[in-house]
Design goal:
single chain, about 550 residues, mainly beta, Immunoglobulin-like, 3 domains, six-stranded mixed β-sheet, 5 helices, 33 strands, lignin degradation, CuRO_3_LCC, hydroquinone:oxygen oxidoreductase activity
Length: about 550
């Protein structure tokens, strides 16, 4: 059945609500440039419909979403629906040269996917080069009509998108870094819903206001759309009740400060139970390794209705950037809800056990004078991934030879003290390699950070799946001892997970989604340097366990 008939069947099904309760939602995304002022300077940025952040896309669980993307800028563009399972619809996933070729200037593409069994907060963003620095927005999936939240119903909801801002053009920044072989410049500011807040050297900079009424409860849908930095988030005078991460429900807990990595989402309940006033909202960086970050804290104001504009803001102090304990306090509190309606279906047996080192390396670069003839690269199991010029999913579906190989290593090629300084030879190998998995196999992945050049926290995102985070630790993973402490009862379910600096994290998933699925560090600089790979999941039996045919308007390379 081709994609036209798939769409027709979905449309007919949704016209018959007695048979199927769902809806087809249509959106139109114009990718356009917009002259934008921040930090007392102006630049042209790439946006959706002229908005930064982009418009919030709303749907309900099991809805079908059709988004027509019209590329009106001089850049190739794709859109990734971060965290959407894309069951059998990999053509709509979005990463350039993985599931599709980019939408070229002047061209259009219709993204067509169904939100099967998903509800919560996700995001969308560009998935080519560094365009997602400004091309991003919230994707809010409401529960089915009549289905309550598994926590007290809030009086209202607010979307909070965290980001980064560079005064210079981000494409120019990464291109210059690749040319020099050195790390790119860090951002000039962090943002909350597109605004940095009060900054010392720009008195005209606007501050975002979150309006609340005393006595009401609000669901804050918090998204980290930053390119390269994990962020702490806190609100003066208020505790936050965490109820969901990455569009999966968790056992509720109260906390003052949350940690949120690029690509992650966190829903919290906020009780507006303090006296009338204005309260500082702060987003500040977390980095517990010797790596340069943007130290500027983004600020907004929680503004109680009726508070006079001249009222002083009640302040809060952001955590120091190296506050590992505050980060761990949040991470260790996360547990899957594991209720009768929302069970934790973690695989208890493992068909494929993979051990992946993630970290940096060195590659010869004679033209990189600033870096003394070498450049910084990144790798998984010492493989620096090279992007193809034909999309991997197309090559797989049409059996095009020579685009990729299926020999991605299940283990590192060399044993060494991973969390130490690394081996004498810091060079990596290059290749376009995928790891092949049979349909419905269970997979365990242990991600081990390395100390090569510097240990660092890597937020790793897996496309096409949610996974269960069964364990994490510092130092080197011990395959004989550490699995005995895995949480196989109520592990949190995520699509993006931080690998602690100088440590490891382990997750499990069931490969029940055929296609080619990208896995990469969501620090964009590391993805650019090659910290990425892909899983190829074979078709199962019959059409319901197979990738659907590509749509007729799939962009051409």
């Amino acid at each position: 059945m081709d994609s036209h008939w798939v769409r027709m069947v979905l449309l007919i099904a949704c016209i018959l609500p007695a048979l199927v309760e769902c809806r087809v939602r249509h959106y139109k995304f114009h990718v356009v440039s917009k002259q934008t002022n921040r930090l007392c300077s102006s630049k042209s940025i790439v946006t959706i419909n002229g908005k930064f952040p982009g418009p919030t896309l709303y749907a309900r669980e099991d809805d079908t979403v059709l988004v027509k993307v019209i590329n009106q800028v001089n850049h190739n563009v794709t859109i990734h629906w971060h965290g959407v399972r894309q069951l059998r619809t990999g053509w709509a996933d979005g990463p350039a040269y993985v599931t599709q070729c980019p939408i070229q200037p002047g061209q259009t593409y219709l993204y067509n996917f169904t939100l099967t069994g998903q509800r919560g907060t996700l995001l969308y963003h560009a998935h080519v080069n560094w365009l997602r620095s400004t091309l991003h927005g919230a994707l809010v999936i409401l529960p089915k009509r009549g289905v309550p939240y598994p926590f007290p119903k809030p009086d209202d909801e607010l979307v909070v998108v965290l980001g980064e801002w560079w005064k210079s053009d981000t494409e120019a920044i990464i291109n210059e870094a690749l040319k020099s072989g050195l790390a790119p410049n860090v951002s000039d500011a962090h943002t909350i819903n597109g605004l940095p807040g009060a900054v010392t050297n720009c008195s005209t900079q606007d501050v975002y206001n979150l309006p609340v009424e005393s006595g009401k409860t609000y669901l804050l849908r918090i998204i980290n759309a930053a390119l390269n930095e994990e962020l702490f988030f806190k609100i003066a005078g208020h505790k936050l009740t965490v109820v969901e991460v990455d569009a999966t429900y968790v056992k509720p807990f109260k906390i003052e400060t949350i940690l949120i990595a690029p690509g992650q989402t966190t829903n919290v309940l906020l009780n507006a139970d303090q006296k009338f006033g204005k309260y500082l909202v702060a987003a500040s960086p977390f980095m517990d390794a010797p790596i340069a970050v943007d130290n500027l804290t983004a600020t907004a104001t929680l503004h109680y209705t009726g508070t006079l504009a001249a009222t002083p803001t009640i302040l809060t102090t952001p955590p120091p950037k190296n506050s590992t304990q505050i980060a761990n306090n949040f991470i260790s509190s996360l547990r899957g809800l594991n209720s009768k309606k929302y069970p934790v279906n973690v695989p208890l047996t493992v068909d494929h056990s993979l051990f992946f080192t993630v970290g940096l390396g060195i590659s010869p670069c004679p033209s990189c004078k600033a870096a003394n003839g070498s450049r910084v690269v990144a790798a998984i199991n010492n493989v620096t991934f090279i992007m193809p010029t034909i999309a991997l999913l197309q090559a797989h579906y049409f059996n095009i030879k020579g685009v990729f190989t299926t020999d991605f290593p299940a283990n590192p090629p060399h044993l060494f003290n991973y969390s130490g300084p690394g081996p004498a030879n810091l060079n990596t190998e290059t290749g376009t390699k995928v790891y092949r998995v049979p349909f419905n196999a269970t997979v365990q992945v242990v991600l081990q950070d390395t100390g090569i050049i510097a240990p660092e926290n890597h937020p790793v995102h897996l496309h096409g799946f949610n996974f269960f985070v069964v364990g994490r630790g510092v130092g080197n993973f011990n395959p004989k001892i550490d699995p005995k402490n895995f949480n196989l009862v109520d592990p949190v379910e995520r699509n993006t997970i931080g690998v602690p600096a100088g440590g490891w994290t382990a997750f499990r998933f069931r490969a029940d989604n055929p296609g080619v699925w990208f896995m990469h560090c969501h620090l964009e600089v590391h993805t650019t340097w090659g910290l990425k790979m892909a899983f190829l999941v074979d078709n199962g039996k019959g059409p319901k366990q197979s990738v659907i045919p590509p749509p007729k308007d799939l962009p051409k390379c």
